[in-house]
């Protein structure tokens, strides 16, 4: 009845509007059939384009009901174009949903679905995604933790990990227990009510047996704590992999500028290739903040705490594309910090980020960012891990300090200058797609998959059985 009313309003338009529709009906296919079982009834002569526009006005559940009436309505109401529109009305972009459903649907190891295959029914995907239970996403970084409900647009809470979640000298189990219990309390949720997606921190970087054992021990401790808290299912994924997924990639190099370490991790089809990665220890966000603090003190700019310096770094600092040229420009800018008033910075704004490319400016003897990434690319090229030599040419930035404006453009330029043309051709650097919350949003892609929690999660029963087999 609603469709008839809408068509009635279309039919009663002015003559000029009728002429326009008539012209479109010549260009757009019209659904018609000789049999009543595959007829649209009063809508047989309506152009497909107009019909789709009308269907977009109704609720998805009503469109599903229409698809059950006859073959003609099934063909129209179950078409991908209509359901892509419905999915676009959600919080996630269609590009992200398409990437997730075609690349991540089967869990690890990843299995790609062709967009041309019959497996990709967007109506079925929509229906399954609507039934997916929400999950809690916890992205615990070395400096700050982000947590929230997977159905929300962004994390609902942030905390300073190293300040709030236990004494570092306490046993790992006790610290993790306090960590998760605090988050559940703040979110006012019961641990037993929903799956948990947790990011695994970028620690114990090496590919040695000792480092592998340490990573397994940490993951086992996380799972033990969560299952002891009666969590029904857990999905634990490496932070760098989540950042790569957020950029809608399954292969590439992830550059994580962490709290005290810069980690360059190659990832091939969702698997971290640690044997060809690079790590720069003692060089991260804390060093950038410390360098800005020293510059402010040199220029007699007073401040109350390191928090103020970090805030100024986030709001005023950037990376110059041409450092020497920037030195001769007027770069003065001001910002107000709550509780402390206004601050004005000039050359400190771009000198802070410059130490990533020229560590000697901060008195450091360390590899520069472009040298570390170039070395990693050389390792990937020499290893010959796959016949496709371009998989490592996409560089994805992640971490709070990776959000400095201009960093991606400068790194891309430096890599083209630093690498031989055989490797540098096609290199592209992607800034953090969701800012400081990039890994959290990568976890959100997994949490909202039509197949979640199935292929991505481990249940308590599976974990206990696997643990018995291991020992």
Instruction: Give the C-alpha Rg.
Output: 27 Å
Number of helices: 21
> In terms of per-residue confidence, which ranges show pLDDT below 50 for 5 or more consecutive residues?
13-37
Mean pLDDT: 86
Strand content: 5-15%
Helicity, as a percent range: 40-55%
Q: How many individual β-strands?
A: 14
InterPro entries: Actin, ATPase_NBD, F-box-like_dom_sf, F-box_dom
Pfam family, one: Actin
Protein name: Actin-related protein 8
Family: Belongs to the actin family.
Give a topology summary:
Blueprint: H1 2-11, H2 15-27, H3 48-55, H4 60-66, H5 71-77, H6 80-88, H7 94-103, H8 122-131, E1 136-140, E2 144-149, E3 157-160, H9 161-164, H10 172-187, E4 196-200, H11 209-228, E5 233-238, H12 239-246, E6 252-257, E7 261-268, E8 271-272, E9 278-281, H13 285-298, H14 306-316, H15 323-327, E10 333-337, E11 341-345, H16 348-354, H17 369-383, E12 394-398, H18 407-418, H19 421-424, E13 428-430, H20 438-447, E14 458-459, H21 460-470
Parallel strand pairs: 1-4, 4-5, 6-12, 12-13
Antiparallel strand pairs: 1-2, 2-3, 5-14, 6-7, 7-8, 7-9, 10-11
Describe this entry's structure for a reader.
With 471 residues, the protein is an alpha/beta fold. Helix content is 45%, strand content 14%. The strands form three sheets. Strands 3-2-1-4-5-14 form a six-stranded mixed beta sheet, with helices on both faces. Strands 6, 7, 8, 9, 12 and 13 form a six-stranded mixed beta sheet that branches. A two-stranded antiparallel ribbon has the order 10-11. The N and C termini lie far apart (65 Å).
């Amino acid at each position: 009845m609603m469709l008839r009313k809408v068509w009635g309003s279309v039919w009663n338009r002015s003559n000029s509007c009728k002429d326009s529709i008539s012209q479109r009906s010549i260009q757009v296919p019209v659904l018609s059939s000789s049999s009543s079982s595959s007829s649209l009834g009063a809508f047989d002569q309506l152009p497909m384009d107009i019909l789709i526009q009308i269907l977009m006005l109704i609720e998805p559940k009503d469109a599903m009901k229409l698809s059950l009436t006859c073959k003609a309505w099934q063909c129209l109401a179950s078409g991908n174009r209509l359901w892509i529109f419905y999915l676009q009305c959600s919080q996630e972009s269609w590009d992200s949903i398409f990437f997730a459903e075609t690349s991540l649907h089967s869990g690890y190891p990843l299995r790609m679905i062709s967009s041309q295959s019959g497996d990709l029914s967007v109506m079925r995907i929509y229906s399954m995604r609507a039934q997916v239970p929400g999950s809690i996403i916890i992205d615990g970084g070395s400096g700050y933790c982000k947590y929230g409900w997977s159905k929300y647009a962004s994390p609902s809470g942030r905390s300073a990990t190293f300040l709030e979640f236990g004494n570092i000298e306490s046993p790992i189990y006790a610290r993790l227990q306090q960590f998760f219990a605090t988050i559940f309390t703040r979110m006012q949720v019961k641990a037993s009510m929903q799956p948990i997606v947790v990011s695994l921190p970028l620690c114990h970087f090496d590919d040695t047996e000792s480092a592998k054992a340490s990573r397994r021990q940490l993951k086992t401790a996380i799972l033990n704590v969560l299952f002891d808290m009666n969590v029904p299912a857990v999905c634990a994924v490496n932070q760098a992999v989540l950042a790569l997924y957020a950029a809608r990639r399954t292969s590439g190099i992830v550059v994580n500028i962490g709290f005290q370490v810069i980690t360059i991790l190659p990832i091939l089809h969702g698997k971290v290739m640690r044997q060809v990665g690079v790590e720069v220890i003692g060089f991260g966000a804390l060093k950038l903040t410390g360098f800005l603090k020293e510059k402010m003190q040199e220029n007699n700019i007073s401040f109350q705490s390191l928090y103020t310096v970090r805030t100024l770094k986030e709001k005023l600092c950037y990376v110059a594309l041409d450092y020497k040229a920037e030195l001769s420009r007027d770069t003065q800018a001001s910002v107000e910090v709550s509780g402390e008033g206004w601050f004005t910075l000039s050359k400190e704004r771009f000198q802070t980020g410059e130490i990533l490319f020229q560590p000697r400016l901060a008195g450091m003897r360390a590899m520069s960012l472009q040298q570390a990434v170039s070395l990693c690319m050389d390792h990937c090229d020499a290893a010959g891990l796959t016949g496709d030599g371009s998989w490592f040419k996409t560089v994805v930035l992640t971490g709070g300090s990776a959000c400095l404006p201009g960093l991606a453009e400068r790194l891309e330029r430096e890599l083209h200058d630093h690498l031989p043309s055989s490797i540098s051709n096609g290199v592209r650097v992607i800034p953090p797609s969701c800012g400081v919350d990039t890994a959290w949003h990568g976890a959100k892609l997994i949490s909202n998959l039509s197949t979640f929690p199935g292929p991505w999660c481990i249940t308590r029963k599976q974990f206990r059985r696997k643990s018995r087999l291991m020992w």
